[in-house]
Amino acid sequence: MLKVSKVRLQQGYRTMKWPDGPAPEMPPHFTGRPVISGDCCNGCGDCAKVCPTGAIAVADGKISLDTGLCIFCGKCEKACSKDAIKFGNDFRLASAKREDLVVQPGNDMTPNAYSEAIHKLFGRSLKLRQVSAGGCNACEADTNVLGTLAWDLGRFGIQFVASPRHADGILVTGPVSKNMELALKKTCEAVPAPKIVIAVGACAVSGGIYRGQEETHKGVAEIIPVDLFIPGCPPHPATILDGLLRLLRK
Amino acid sequence: MSGPAVIRNGGKLPLSQIPVLTVSDFRRDILDSVSKGARISALFGSPTGENIRLIAVLAWRDTGSISVLSAPVQKSYPALTPDCPQAHLFEREIFEQWHVMPEGHPWLKPVRFPDSEKTSDMGVTNFFQIEGEEIHEVAVGPVHAGIIEPGHFRFQCHGETVHHLEISLGYQHRGVERSLVNGPNSKSLHFIETLAGDTTVGHATAFSRIVESLAGIRAPARAQVIRGIALELERMANHIGDLGALAGDIGYLPTMSYCGRIRGDLLNLTAMLCGNRFGRRLVVPGGVGYDIDSENADKIAARLKSAFRDAESAIGLLWETPSVLARFENTGALSRETAVKIGLVGVAARACGLQRDVRSDFPYGIFLLSHIPAATWESGDVFARAFVRWQELQRSYKFILEQLAALPDGAVRAGENPPIASGHLAVALVEGWRGEICHVAITNNEGRFLTCKVVDPSFHNWFGLALALRGQQISDFPLCNKSFNLSYCGHDL
Q1: ipTM score here?
Q2: B260–A148: do the CB atoms touch at under 8 Å?
Q3: Where are the alpha helices (DSSP H) in B275-342?
């Protein structure tokens, strides 16, 4: 018992201050929200050629980058001779609308994730059931980490529960493998209405690197309507938590 | 009959040098080799025009060598499994992928249900059933209670006692191996990085070594060291997470709470190498994507020391708490004989007293110069699997600090990657945090992948979990499951 207390003292209080205090420091080489400089871009399309997921579109000499498809590999940034694409440090990527995930030149606004209806229903308490549907265990791990004492998701009234019957919504990872389609539908149906659906990670948002595979779907929205899209491969835990909080506007 | 072709870990050989045996010689050679101590690292089919060629990759621990042999088959061949149980899942996979029937296989069930869309029978199979008045069946999954991947578990119980557990997977199947064919291309490495996302560094290292071998290039020394550091950071993060989760499964909350956080600290150290907590973008064919400057190296070392101090005290509580030991000891035990028979790898094998570790048995890269002794324990139970993890944590910690302090000079990337050799086979083994990762690639005449075989350690070890449950209380399943902590997507590919 003495030993347990001694260790408890050593481990200390480790829950981060954010969002009330400073945000966690992002590491060097972090690839957050990309910014496209309209002045630098000459529309050559070198960036689109190296993109492994086809996240970059070139039209009328201008590029746009779909952060919902992007796996944040940074290849486009390196390929651009004009320094027109820069992945910044901003981890706030989540959006309520799929189309708002597309970054246009000169636009570095954080997409809107708030929903008044969801705020009214679940603003004070949100219970989620997680379903991995072809996720690689990276999105799952960085969702799971929100339950640790460093992030302490419970302090926001958000909790992951074991049964869909106890949940207000589901949080889905993975592109939705065809072998998980039925299980995903059944789990979603088992959640009592009104309910919400959150897609976490490039795969769940758009299929990501698995988009176009015959064994998978192109993300959750192909199967069930999605209320919040959280991009990244995988999203940083701060990205996921920021998305959940902005959805509820806590 | 000529002997099998022999290569080292990370070696390649022309397809013409792989002996083509009759099926009966192929079988005899594999059975002989396994009886002499070889282990099947991979056994798979590769298309050759009309037919399928079976390829066996055998790992010889005593000599640190890998032998490769092959045999053409048509519609069927006599199964190895009745004489060599470690072939069981490989042969099921061969049947599923190539429709080549291993005659006499005792358990020829689906591995991944790749055609479920056409037949709409995902997860439906003739599950083994025990009959009797008080026998009952418990079905769990595919969706589980925690934030984990999907899989189906079917228990045959008498009262609380599990007499048989059948594990049916495939829910995570995304067609990774199929998509690697005709590569390497701009997507290949990303498929590899996400085929088991918690083992990004392990799989990316194996794949990069395959490409380097086929292209005839070498990652520079500095890159080899950075890869080693990243691999051991990945091991530390996962082992710490697992020890915390094991504590959680028996309701011992202090260690659970602390380790959950400390695991995040370790992931953050990987992020300091490349910006991503799972090591995405770090390991690339030809070297690593990012260098470590000395300031960053000092920072990583300082943070690692602090995280390890926390881990040491948090994990130390486990070994001093009688209620923890009472739940860990004699739970889910596997014998050494069983482990050998079914070809167990990694932590689970070492917890049965087997010296099996790619880093010491088939060393490559930095592990040729800096040795990490394999950690073993004899009891084969949950305690052993936990304690081996703790021993490995200490060794990885020491290794990382040593390497950070002695980074060799030079570049971290060999120049541009030249095209890869046509008509070759290459094998790379890496000791991922779960155990042996085996990648095998065969190239066609145009220098593209004809076949890519990926064997995650989970492929060998899921059956070990099923056997470990026999005679256990069903309420111990979460604890046993976590003590293996196998990958679903690494198995389902």
Answers
A1: 0.95
A2: yes
A3: 294-320, 322-328, 336-342
